[in-house]
Amino acid sequence: DIQMAQSPSSLSASVGDRVTITCQASQDISDHLNWYQQRAGKAPKLLIFDASNLEPGVPSRFSGSGSGTDFTFTISSLQPEDSATYYCQQYDNVPSITFGQGTRLEIK
Amino acid sequence: QVQLVESGGGVVQPGRSLIFSCEASGFTFRNYFMHWVRQAPGKGLEWVAVIAYDGSNKYYADSVKGRFTISRDNSKNTLYLQMDSLRAEDTAFYYCARGGLINSGSFAFDYWGQGTLVTVSS
After folding, report:
1. Cα torsion for A52, A55, A57, A61, to the nearest 10°?
2. Among A45, A95, A99, whose Cβ lies nearest the Cβ of B44?
3. Which residue in chain A is spatially nearest to B116 when comparing CA positions?
4. What is the Cβ-side half-sphere exposure of residue B28, based on CA atoms within 13 angstroms?
5. Do β-strands A10-13 and A103-107 pair in parallel, antiparallel, or remain unpaired?
6. Which chain B residue is nearest to residue A93, measuring alpha carbons?
């Protein structure tokens, strides 16, 4: 199975800060990576698909980049409603799909 | 609007079975791959199973292979998960999620149900 190493596991930042989360795959997965946001007590929400494509309706402060084994998820200007856990998900060796361990983002 | 509504969770003893469903609305259900994803309380996400748009192909995570069965009834716009030989480690919130459109090659889960809790305990 492809392993996804997501970091950091948690972080705390202030409103307006730029926040970056990384995901590293154990092997080349091309751009077969998605990013999700999960607010407390809610279902996950798709934010970015195919590494860098913004899901319709998602604010433009969210972005993704990378290919191969190294990927980055960025929030350009943190908002209070961005407090959540963020997950990367690879789908390169379908049907085996794996998620990163998650990054818990707290607003100071 | 797209909705996925799950039902059927609950408390079950180890070794027993449980089936729950996910009713879809707001889109052409028969044209989409559908998935189950679970999340143990306080833990991360784990993909469980996928079924093709017409039910012709089904795949499972190794952790549930041989014990869980995914199925669908396109006439009822409903997805199912039959769970047999349940173990304590199957305790989790179970989410149904919409996958890709036929021939899209997409494995992004763009809509999710609200989640249903299954607790395996004696």
Report:
1. -20
2. A99
3. A43
4. 7
5. parallel
6. B107
Contact call for B107 and A94, based on CB within 8 A: yes
pLDDT (tens digit per residue) in A57-88:
999 999 999 999 999 999 999 999 999 999 99
Using a CB-CB cut-off of 8 Å, the residues of chain B touching A50 are 108
- CA neighbor of A87 nearest in space, from A73, A68, A75: A73
pLDDT in tens, B2-60: 999 999 889 999 999 999 999 999 999 999 999 999 999 999 999 999 999 999 999 99
Q: Chain A residue closest to B5 (CA)?
A: A43
Nearest to A102 among B44, B110, B115 (CB): B44
* Angle value at C-alpha B13, between B7 and B22, nearest 5 degrees: 15
Is the bond preceding A59 in cis, omega lying within 30 degrees of 0? no
Contact A45 B112 (CB under 8 A): yes
| Exposure b/e, B24-44, CB count within 10 A at least 16 = b | beebebeebbbbbbbbeeeee
Given a contact cutoff of 8 angstroms between Cβ atoms, the answer to whether A95 and B59 are in contact is yes
Sheet holding A70-75, edge to edge: A4-7, A19-25, A70-75, A62-67
For the record, the structure tokens of A51 come out as 């590494």
